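May I ask for a protein sequence together with how it folds?
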Amino acid sequence: MNEKRRVIRISDIVYYVIRGRRLILILAIVGLIVGIILSGIGYIQGNISKEYKITSSIAIIAQTGSGNYASKNVNPDKADVELAQEITDSAIYILKSERMLSEAIEKAELTGVSIKDIQKNITFTQYKETQIIETTLFWRSESEGIRILSAINSVSGDVLLETLKIGNVSVVNSPKAGYIVGGNINISTWLISAVIGAILGMAFCLLRLMIAPLLTNVDDLEKLNATEVLGNIAYDKGFSDSSPFASDQSPAKKDIISLAYILENRMKNEGYRKLLLTSTIKDEGRTDLTVNIAQQLASAGIKTLMIDADFKNPNLSAMFNGSFSYEQSLNAVYYGDADETDAVCHISGCLDLLPCMIGERSLSVNEALLRVIDNISEKYDIVLLDCAPVGVNAEVISFKSFADVALFVVRYDYADLEDIEKAINRLSGSGVNIIGYAVNSVKTFKDILKEAQKLSLFSRKLRIKALKKKNASDKENNKSKKKKKEKEK
């Protein structure tokens, strides 16, 4: 597709993220599972989940090598306390030094323990700008961790005097251990994995927007070859379920009425009678629209004929439960097994149907078949041909000598814009005049949000509760109707 037409809007980005909510949720759950698995592996290895938290606290004392305080008094005064506070930062540096830890390892007689192992898992924190230092060690063994802290507390006084020439320690709280199982480390691992999964899902959705955008903005369709969109049919999940005709309560009903009115006026003004309906790919609602447009035209007193012209995958007869015999088909007329009058099925009022059958006597477009269709179509004001998707089956183009114009049906958020453009170019390039577009199942932002809410368990419970309430109400109404009928009898 021409890059000049590639305009990405903020609304498109938001739409694609909401549209891909299921994928995002699935990848987030997968990420969460991966995080749990990683935590499980860590638990087995003893690197994450299984460890002990050993704590202790000491106080720095401003003593010299002789055992007296810096003020040369037997008991400390205010100056000694202030000096102890000032050297606490230096003391913390010494406590975590290689010299200190190597002497502690030697004193605790530990084997297989390195200085880096202790440095990585130990923290020294000054308590509120006092001379007290709190020590925390995360270790895999309770007894070994207590031995390490006890050894550090034991040798720290001598090392401080040797290095700083002043300072000693007094143990405030002896080392004690507490067993922890993962704690925040596990939870953060799970959360990070879930977030990464969700981000990957969003990235995939946006990648789809960049590489193969779908029709999510009707204006993009008109830019493809400057043809007008004649109708936007509102999204209605139950539209196809209410076949053959949309119910009056359907949000799509008024849009279909409007589209039929526009088509009637355009075709009448231009002297057209035969309208071909096609699309890019299957399942874009082409047959549903054919039936409902035909119904609206017939209800206005226009004698209308629907022809099932998708010979490889006929759907029109299926819309009416497929209750037609072979003699009631275009196949029978073409092969001389039925009269033209008998083959046409009367649906209602001014609406008729010419079905197509799949069987041994299949059909393909040729001059003889087009003459048969032309003869049958003579007595009708408007003829609608429900054809195969032009993006899938090029046989549609063979109807160009019969059909006056074509209505191109596009389903919102379904086919790639590039494929739509190719299909339109194939149709118009063959000489078929496109009267306009009909965009089917157009979703508003509100429709997307409603679908997103369905993922909520809370929303699901409310829907179930409402459904039960409705069923109970229907039962009560049925009971009251039965009682009323019995009384009337």
About this structure: The CA atoms of residues 208 and 412 lie 16 Å apart. The longest helix spans residues 457-488.
